[in-house]
Design goal:
- This protein is of the alpha+beta class.
- Strands 1, 2, 3, 4, 5, 6 and 7 form a seven-stranded mixed beta sheet that branches.
- The radius of gyration is 14 Å and the shape is globular.
- The chain starts with a helix and ends with a strand.
- This is SnoaL-like domain-containing protein.
- InterPro entries: Cyclase_SnoaL-like, NTF2-like_dom_sf.
């Protein structure tokens, strides 16, 4: 398996564990200690802890949150994913959907950097 295929498999497994299985603690294994999130919703963040806390807040907001990887591309140490997020807002009970693109940089078998764009959550009929 090429390094690009290994990186894509790592990112797919990361989404499955971190989002779909709601295992926030996986952040300590998957993110580099100096992981840099350029687009963390609460401001640029360093290390696995801010990512873990962001997902824990997201689990509360959307308790049934699931992400589907629609497309995944890799080149060199970068992996780009187009994904769809679905979940029910805990306050309004309204099913929501949002879409995103994320680019990860991997180093030494860990997620080292992240750039992401998400659409605002929209109600699903």
């Amino acid at each position: 398996m090429s390094i690009q295929e290994e990186n894509k498999a790592f990112v797919r497994a990361h989404f499955e564990e971190f989002v779909n299985r709601k295992n926030a603690a996986i952040a300590y294994r998957n993110f580099a200690p100096d992981f840099l999130d350029h687009d963390e919703p609460y401001g640029e963040a360093v290390g696995p802890e801010p990512a873990k806390q962001m997902m824990e807040r997201t689990y509360l907001k959307y308790p049934d949150l699931q992400v589907t990887v629609e497309d995944i591309l890799a080149e060199g140490d970068r992996v780009v994913v187009r994904n769809v997020w679905r979940g029910t807002d805990a306050e309004t009970r309204q099913p929501m959907l949002f879409r995103g693109f994320v680019m990860w940089r991997l180093a030494d078998g860990k997620l080292a950097e992240r750039w992401a764009t998400l659409t605002p959550p929209t109600p699903v009929a």
